[in-house]
Every structure is written in structure tokens, then in C-alpha cells.
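Have a close read of this protein, sequence plus C-alpha cells, and explain what the C-alpha cells say about the fold. Thanks in advance:
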Amino acid sequence: MLLEKITSLQNPRVKQLVKLRERRDRDDAGLFLIEGYREVRRALEKGVQPREFYYAPEWFLGENEPALIEQARQAGAQLFELSKEAFAKVAYRERPDGLLAVAAQWKHTLADLNVAGVADPGVLGSEPGSTTPATKAPFLLVVEAIEKPGNLGTILRSADAAGCDAVIVCDPVTDIFNPNVVRASTGVLFSVPIVVADSPAVQAWLRGKGIRIVATTPDTPNIYTKADLRGALAIVMGSEQYGLSDFWLKESDLLVRIPMAGQADSLNVAMATIITLFEAVRQRGG
């Protein structure tokens, strides 16, 4: 049910939406923003139940928006229509499409990731980012201290495309609920199981599960295409500026590198992740 149309830029709801762009305010409220038709649609498809849903018909790009608004209403969201100016104030995108949802954050732990066999029906079964039954040979992506939200979002999208069972974010610099992560992931945030944890806990969990750790670094003679990337595997990628920490370089089973033929000594971390993941996909018969 539509409660009201908001036109004032000083409306408390408008001000609160602007605040949710900042990590501290998101964490304090336990909420985050989902902006855009594709992102909202995928969130709803994966069982996300928005608390609030804001829309501005003057920004719509097509004819499917009313059906999505109705879907959000049926999922329990309060509906608020915004004027064009009010929506431009709260939108994260330069050219918004007039759709914005507010949803509750969620948190998964390493214990939620059942990768030893068939997943427990109660584990990640109905929450956003829920997992499918685990494979006998888990295929995981671990990323450490990724700084740029756009890179983290693209990495999530790549992990989904490669069929990773989960993404584990270690010692994050940016949070997974950053609006740019949501946007760059194109809504994959809601379909790939994601866990945030510190590196020692992740390394110990991987060891306990018998999952081989393969870390990427330019400082090794081992070419990634020559490495065996089959079986139970966790590929570990480092930050944009510093690469992997000494902890992961020392605690991994194997170090591999992507050969560089030009003057550049490294690739963008999102691009390097794509290349490495899909070499593993090739070897695993995907």
C-alpha cells in the first residue's frame, strides 16, 4: 500500500536514505540500499524481503517497473513514491532508473558453509545468498583486504559465473553492502554465499576441511596454468595495492602467478581473479 508521496528533499526518509550510503550508518541501522531494476529483481527472486521500497515513475526506463513494485509490496515492503528531484537526491547512480529498496543486512559464518557433503537444509537455505547442496570437491574463492567496492562487486559476479560454492572475504577494507558492491555485482550478492572473517580463522577452517589453498602472487616461478586446480580448492586473491599478506603467502599450499609479457607487473585484481577462476573451471571440466 502506498503510504505517501515524498517531494521534499528535507523529508526525514530522504535524509535517512542518504545516510545509508555511509558504512557507519548502514552498520548502525543494520540496513543497506538496493538500487536498480536488475538488482532489486534478483534480490526479490532470492527471497530478500525489503522493509521499504521507493520509486519515482519519472525515472523509469521501461514498462516492467509496476510489476516489480507490486512484487516488492507482496514481499512486505512499505511503498513510497518520490518526486523526480527527491529520488535524484537519494540515488547512488548518476542516471537512476527510479527504483530503490531498503533491506536488512545479514551475516553468514564459516560454520554456515557446509562444503563436506549435502548441505544441511537449515543452513543458508532460505536466507539471501543461500547456497545449493555442497559439492564433494568444494571450489571456493578467498579475497583479502579488497579496497575498491567496484572490484569486490565484479569479483562476486565472476565467482558466480565460475560456479564457486562460496566467496570468503577476509579482513575487508570495504563492506559487502556498499552500494557500489551491490551495483557492480549486478545482484549476484544475493545468490552467492558470502562469509566475512579474519584470515587466521579462514585458514584454520580450510585446513580443517582438507581444502587445498592456492594463492596468487607475482613472486613465484609457478605459472597458474601449470598448477593442478582440481579437487577441493580455495583460490586466494590479494588486495589491489599490496597483493596478499605474508600470512597467506606462508600458509598456502601453492603459490601461482599469471605471466606478464609487457611492462605492467600486475593486473587489476578483478581481472586476475577472472583469469585464475576460469583456468580452474577449465581444468575441472566446466
Notes: The first strand starts at residue 2 and ends at 6. The chain has ten helices and eleven strands. Confidence is low (pLDDT under 50) at residues 117-127, 130-135.
